[in-house]
Amino acid sequence: MSISLAVLEEVVREAGSIALAYFKDLKNVEVKQKSPRDFVTAADVAVEDFLKETLTRKYPEYGFWGEEGGQSANQTNRWIVDPIDGTHSFAKGQYFWGISVALEIDQELMMGAVYAPALNDYYCAEKGKGAWKNGQPITVSSETSLADGMVGTGFACLRSYLEDNNLARFGRIAQNTTGQRRFGSAAVDLCLVADGQLDAFWEQELNLYDVAAGALIAREAGATVTDFKGNEGLFPKQVLVTNGKILGQILPLM
Question: Which of 116, 137, 158 is at the close of a domain?
């Protein structure tokens, strides 16, 4: 690859500065509905435009897939981008939202970055080389008991009015854990598993751009990435990421 994590960090942090400028002036930020209960802001568009222009100019050999603008011609080797994952949180002035950028080559995730500017936390990973938060190596938690664990989830399925809306699944798992969290950004949630702040995270009916970078970061930190039946791999319609030690305990509840 002709790109380094250092170069990627420079680009993503600059995108974060653009997002923060909007975040600090939310009263003047336009918010629209893409569909019922799904929002887009002027910040989403501005951040994606910057990332697309900068990354495709610097690395024309890679295509681009952004949540707001869709896919370019070359999708064999591509950047996969969610300019602001957690737009609703962003629009409400909450801190749990992030910029997610992954590089996929021949269907393999090779590099990923998730930047939460309001928290000033920058996560990154390169396939086979580990994961980092703010320049320091990170690993998943050592928790071996689901009963003592803390888990996170999300409800994109509920927002989409789907019959399988995660509520029954959440009820089962919540009764078998000590802590449950719903932060509102799958990209950041996956990084919290990587960093040991969550012991597991699951969600369903997501898109690849929501989870590509975060899943690579989690996997490089030692996490298992499976579907709800324990099949290894990244399945955006069923994402289950654990520290590996409680996977066997949470699977029967999925």
Answer: 137
Domain boundary among 111, 137, 163: 137
Measured CA to CA, the distance from residue 247 to residue 254 in angstroms comes to 11
CA nearest 203: which of 161, 252, 154? Answer: 154
Residues 154, 95, single domain; the answer is no
Query: How far is it, in rounded angstroms, from Cα 12 to Cα 117?
Result: 10
Contact 87, 41 (CB under 8 A): yes
Strands 179-181 and 150-153: parallel
Task: Tell me how crowded residue 155 is: count the other CB atoms within 10 A of its CB.
Answer: 17
The CA distance from 123 to 137, in Å, is 10
Judge if 128 and 53 occupy the same domain: yes
Distance CA 147, CA 59 (A): 47
Q: How many separate domains does the chain show?
A: 2
pLDDT tens per residue, range 132-176: 999 999 999 999 999 999 999 998 766 666 678 889 999 999 999
The closest alpha carbon to 221, from 139, 135, 98, 102, belongs to 139
Domain that holds residue 57: 5-137
